[in-house]
TrEMBL record, chain A:
Stored Pfam families: FAS1_DH_region
SUPFAM superfamilies noted in UniProt: Thioesterase/thiol ester dehydrase-isomerase
Protein name: FAS1-like dehydratase domain-containing protein
FAS1-like dehydratase domain ranges (all copies): 13-143
UniProtKB/TrEMBL annotation, chain B:
Entry similarity comment: Belongs to the enoyl-CoA hydratase/isomerase family.
All copies of domain MaoC-like, residue ranges: 10-106
Pfam families recorded: MaoC_dehydratas
The organism of origin for this protein: Paractinoplanes durhamensis
Superkingdom of the organism of origin: Bacteria
InterPro entries reported for this sequence: HotDog_dom_sf (IPR029069), MaoC-like_dom (IPR002539)
Coiled coil ranges: none
Name of the protein in its database record: MaoC-like domain-containing protein
Amino acid sequence: MTKLLTPELAARIGEQVSYTAPEPLGRASIRYFALATGDPEPAHRTGEVAPPTLICETNQYAGVPRDDDGYAGHGWHLDVPGTRLVRGGNSYEFHGPVGPDDIVTATWRLADMVERVTGDGKRMLVVTSTATYTKQTGRVLATNEETLIYVER
Amino acid sequence: MSSVEYPPLERTIDLPDMIAYAGATWDWHRLHYDQAYLAARGLDRPVVDGQVFGAYLAIALRGWFGPHAEITKLSFRFKSLVFAGETIRCHGTLREVADRHAVVDLRVEVADDGRRAVAPAEATVRLP
């Protein structure tokens, strides 16, 4: 049986890509996020301080065209035939407040890929990526470890 | 120390909420609104973007610990899909407090049937 984790895929572990937003985060973006999530905190509602997860959830910095699924964020575009993609989870660390004047750079790294078997015997490829978000001074704002899972159909 | 269970944060996630979140995060994936796209994948309702649960958990944490508390870590795993129109509850239980940091066990459940949308999950909060 062919492995999901082919040598071609394994060779991609360690790839890295950075995206820098073309503008500061902006009060309107913060305010819009706060409104969309029903965040009651006044500093978020006025756009003075970003809710902590905003920079980990937004694609504002990416500047990539949307794909056929309508998605316009970072992706590794891995080819894993015979699978469907599901989200595994996220692990965030926040290193301090983010404000409207911050210009965010997101640096993604394809950290690891591991083939496993689900409880019902299906093969899956667990892909772990890390993102480090920095501002224009170089200060780290947050980190994000994200798990995506390609599950055999 | 006996564990403290906080009052859950409840949200009904209607399609306009999902559209607003898609705009606010620049994420226009068709799973979240396109009925034809969903039907082709055997789904009868738009799927809530799982990332929003991170935002909801952060809101819940600040409600429980106050605006001067600082969330330093937040992690969560997705268990099941949530669909447009469903009501979710963010639950939190205090696990421990040490060195002015609280560690909280979290989960997100769907109100109607109790299925777990997000679990396990946890956060670390620096206390004022």
